[in-house]
Amino acid sequence: MKLAARYVQIDNWLSVEEHRHLLNYVSQQQPNFEPADMPFEGAVHRKAWVLFSFPEFSSLVEARIQAIFPDILAQLSLPSFEISQIEAQLTAHNDGNYYKIHTDNGIYHKSFESKVKTRLLTYVYYFHNEPKAFSGGELRLYDSTIVDNLYCYADSFQSIEPRNNRMIFFLSRQFHEVMPVSCSSQAFADSRFTINGWIHGLRPKSSPHRALSVRAGLKIGAPGGEVS
């Protein structure tokens, strides 16, 4: 059984003025970005930079998501649910940065369970300076399979270009990865930037949901099954 990856794409998410203001803000905030490297079982699962507090823009993104949320659910064929929280972080991927295959509501450690298990939708807003000074950094969104009650990713996937001023929404339980970025200048301003985060909510009681384990050696799993 294969479950096709689903996502919603919206281009020109911010106005020209908002986009310019955001790029100026990111440039000023460079000293406040923290390494987001993530060691996992003796290897580095993620290399990037992250900023957790940027209230002016996180509030803007949250308000815009709230305004179109019913349409997003409809396009993903999901039942209505009430948003309990919207998380946001600002990330920068520069030369050699990546994020290996994972899900966004999987459990790395028992202590993280309460923080991630109610993530239902993931969003990623891409932006960068022009002309574009990096290559790579595509989002691979994998189709899923369920075999022997195990939820795993298939060999097939969709590759989404990190195009300037583009917003993407997808199910948090879907496996995905950020392909390595190449940025010859290694200048922070030339990075692949995102505002990304997660929409939390309770699954409708009428929605069938099975707690599935993760296959293919990954311990970074997600509760599987269809949300709708």
Automatic annotation (TrEMBL):
It comes from the Bacteria. Keywords: Dioxygenase, Iron, Metal-binding, Oxidoreductase, Vitamin C. Gene3D superfamilies: q2cbj1_9rhob like domain. This is 2OG-Fe(II) oxygenase. SMART domains: P4Hc. The lineage of its organism: Bacteria, Bacillati, Cyanobacteriota, Cyanophyceae, Leptolyngbyales. InterPro entries: HIF_prolyl_hydroxylases, Oxoglu/Fe-dep_dioxygenase_dom, Pro_4_hyd_alph, Pro_4_hyd_alph_FE2OG_OXY. PANTHER family: EGL NINE HOMOLOG-RELATED, HIF PROLYL HYDROXYLASE, ISOFORM C. Residues 76-201 form the Fe2OG dioxygenase domain. The keyword NADP does not apply. One of its GO terms (molecular function) is L-ascorbic acid binding. Its cofactor is L-ascorbate.
